[in-house]
Amino acid sequence: MNSSKPTTSFRKSSYSGGDHSNCVEIAVTADGGRAARDSKNPAHGTTHHSPTAWAAFLTSLRDGTLGH
């Protein structure tokens, strides 16, 4: 079984802009991580993030330390 394969449908953030055209879509993967893709070009590929990497990403967003 591919643990990076999405096990749920991709969804857009409720924080996306009004027209929802510039969004990142996220889906849960079998290993508890996340898959992400561009909503405008979903066929152009998906990035896969382990549960640990996804948690670190969310923490850095909350703490305001992303990219610092």
TrEMBL record:
Family annotation (InterPro entries): DUF397
Domain DUF397: 9-62
Compositionally biased residues, Polar residues: 1-16
Location of the region described as Disordered in the Swiss-Prot/TrEMBL record: 1-53
Alphabetical list of Pfam families matching this protein: DUF397
Name under which the protein is recorded: DUF397 domain-containing protein
Origin organism lineage: Bacteria, Bacillati, Actinomycetota, Actinomycetes, Kitasatosporales
